[in-house]
Amino acid sequence: MNGYAAWAHPQLAAQVLRPRRDGCSEIALRVESLHDARQVLWLEQRIRALPGVRRVAIDRPAQRVRVVWDAQRTPLPALLESFAAADCPAQPLPRDSIDDARAREQHQALKHLLVAGMCSMQVMTYAFVIYVGVVDFVDFSTRSLFRWLGLLTTLPVVFYSAQPFFAGAVRELRGRRLGINLPVALAVLLVFLASGFNTLRGSGEIYFDSVTMFVFLLLAGRYVELRSRHRSGALGDAAIDAAPLLAQRRRADGELETVPAIALLPGDRVHIAEGGTVPADGVLESAGAQVDEALLSGESRPVRRARGQRLVAGSVLLSGPAELRVEHSGATTVAARLGALATRARQARSLIAPSDREIGRFVARVLVLTALTALGWLLVDPSRAFEAAVAVLVVACPCSFALARPAALTRALGVLAARGVLVTDGKALDTLARVDYALFDKTGTLGVPQLDRRAIEPLRGDTPEHVLQLADALAHESSHPLARALADAARQQALPLQARSVRVHAGAGISGEVDGRMLRLGRADFALAPAGHPLPADADALVLADADGAIAAFHLAEQPRAGARRLLDTLRADGIAIAIASGDHESRVGALADRLDVADRYARQSPDDKLARLQAAHAEGRITLAVGDGSNDAPLLAGADVSAALASGTELAQSHADLLLLDGHLGSLADARAIARQLRQVTRRGRRWSLWYNLAAVPFAAFGLVTPWLAAIGMSLSSLLVVLYALRVGNTGAVAPADVPGPPLRPRELHA
Amino acid sequence: MNILLVLIPVTSLIVGVGVWLFFWAVNHQQFDDLDSPASLPLLDDDQPVPASPAEPHPTDPP
Question: Would you tell me which residues 139-178 of chain A have a C-beta closer than 8 angstroms to some C-beta of chain B?
């Protein structure tokens, strides 16, 4: 458990602890293994039993635990050790991930809803007395009393519960756009003011029952949407936290150890492989390197950095491995930048505000229609103008129209996150549903390379162990799947050698100095280029060579990745053209393509060839999907209409992909497509329903056949229905029910 | 009709008390987790509740 001792360092602790006014500290932790509710309760009891712990809140869908405790009485390492002792290891999260907004928003919404519900029932009883007419003839002053009671009971609904609508309307007006809150706020205010005026006057119609019920039902619809949004958010957070940024720290004895990036301290030396993300601000200590700072600056051209220059956390290393001496860590700005990917994924969720212009046009038409109705009735029968205008305003309000897409989309994103698909672009799902051409990378995407010990062929009499050791020194510096497979096979080696002046040649191989010799590892033509030797017979092997010729050949076997078959079959069944493009040799591409029944295959493709192929398909009017992994694919992923990357691959590939498959399972992409299509269908149908409903109801309202209370019921029920319908996404047989996430779980919080 | 003068304040009072109780419950996180407490009665009584030494729980996966 000594791994936790480092968290005693004040600089590290400052990154994760949030001090509270009462002297306690607050921390957010990510926990891996919370399987059932019993375990949640048990863990909570154990943590609460620690001295000084004030509050424990476990959010199971988000896999997060928040603890408020007195750090004087139980130090942070002791707290973390208690989690580990409970078989539930916890990883501290940066302190800016402690977020109260969600709980507060939900509490507010629940209170608004309840006040509206209680008051509307009360108002209804008062209104009923007046409707039935018992008091009308008996006692005029009693009738007036009930009207006043209605007014008083409506006050909390209008001035407390309806606040979200008024606040939203003000926001929309400030932003100079027309949104759905404006007609709602207008209707509530108009009806309330008119009824209040009639109450004061003692004659004329009152609509307190309509207005309270309208507010209550609308709030109910929004509350359902809010809960679904928060649950999706929690699932998304869990997926995002699951891939924390790791760093390779060099220990005093020169060995590398893997630590979370937030655990880095100034002065630490960090090794970054090609394609890796720079984990902290620092000074480059190795020879020059190319970095991509696009995530930070938006500048997409690679930048050259020489020895002694600074690298910024969050940028991506494009060429060669690098050594970095950490200068800053802990500054919140850096921590925030490190989360660039997470932020992007979260933005996808906030970007789901529906097409504003469409709703703006809709609202404008509603307002015009209302004005026309009022005008028409003023000419015919002024006494009915107000009632008819209000009925039109309420009936035609495009609430359900506006709710259809966000409700369905949040639900879809949540379901996908639970299945290990992280969507970084809200529009990607729309495109995914329409895709008709899919281009796959082979190595590391469709196939998983594996190196067997027996497949190592030393060509100059070395032992297999020795050549593997030499090759591993180079392979360690690259994030290419083949290099990873080699490094995996060499993991048991006693003493890894260290390579110097390493260069990675994209699509070809790696060169560097190991043990005083210049070595090259990669495709045979690359590795043997300086020696000028003829290629060996088995040209698809990975070759290790020096200036004198080949040293060893590695015959890597390739297995189709889990779910690859299912994904390709699903895509084919939908009539999507599938192609494989790989930088690898023909025979290896052919072998895998045969196993997966793909006829359209291209071997020995450079990254530019792949991109050209994709662009050719795009030019034919096809909608393209690119699936890849590895830094070779970055331009491919960026160039496709929609792209997916396996998140086990390099961070570089991730940063250009719209969809990230987190669990390395290709089948989840088939699920994603099924859900994307369902989303399109549900959204369309929801919008069509609400349009037809509006078209059918508006004429009745305009001719004064719909009373305001009937309009209020119809309108709020329609939006509630659309929200409930949207929650069907991910529920039906379109996707295997086995992976459907467990019952919804919410954060729990108890006081110690 | 004089009974109204008693009953109406009484109903208003009940509504007020109901709203107050509900606000109290919301503010004390009673609505945050609607699932886990359901399994509270299923927990075994002989569990090491207060600050027991770290012994693995039978239902915990390794």
Answer: 139, 142, 145, 149, 153
Distance CA A96, CA A15 (A): 9
Q: Which of A33, A42, A746 sits opposite B35 (nearest CB)?
A: A746
> Quick check: B61 and A35 CB within 8 A?
yes
Please identify among residues 77-116 of chain A the ones whose CB lies closer than 8 Å to any CB of chain B.
Answer: 82, 85-88, 103, 106-107, 110-111, 114-115
pTM for the model stands at 0.65
Determine the straight-line distance between the first and last CA of chain B, rounded to whole angstroms.
72
Q: Which domains does chain A have, with CATH numbers?
A: 5-99 (3.30.70.100), 104-233+351-409+684-726 (no CATH), 244-332 (2.70.150.10), 427-446+561-657 (3.40.50.1000), 449-558 (3.40.1110.10)
Question: Which positions 646-705 of A are in contact with B (Cβ < 8 Å)?
Answer: none
The DSSP output letter for A278 is P
How buried is A586 (Cβ within 10 angstroms: 0-12 exposed, 13-18 middle, 19+ buried)?
middle
Q: Split chain A (752 residues) into runs of 10 and give each run's mean pLDDT.
A: 67 75 82 74 83 81 81 84 81 69 84 92 85 63 83 93 91 81 86 89 82 85 78 67 68 74 78 76 80 59 77 73 76 47 50 59 84 89 82 78 76 80 76 89 78 73 75 74 73 65 73 78 73 61 76 78 86 89 80 85 82 87 83 71 72 64 81 89 84 85 79 78 81 45 35 34
Contacts of A50 in chain B (CB under 8 A): 51
* Distance, CA of A290 to CA of A304 (rounded, Å): 5
Q: Are A199 and A186 in contact (CB under 8 A)?
A: no
Residues of B in contact with A138 (CB under 8 A): 1
Closest approach of A581 to chain B, Cα-based (Å): 42
Quick one: DSSP state of residue A492? G
For residues A676 and A412, the answer to whether their CB atoms sit within 8 Å is yes
Residue A267 sits at the vertex; the CA angle it makes with A262 and A273, to the nearest 5 degrees, is 65
In the predicted structure, residue B1 carries a pLDDT above the cut 80: no
Residue A414 Cα, gap to closest chain B Cα (Å) = 18
Q: Which residues contact A535 (CB under 8 A, 6 or more apart)?
A: A524, A525, A528
Inter-chain CB proximity A114 and B22 less than 8 Å = yes
What pLDDT is recorded for position A119?
92
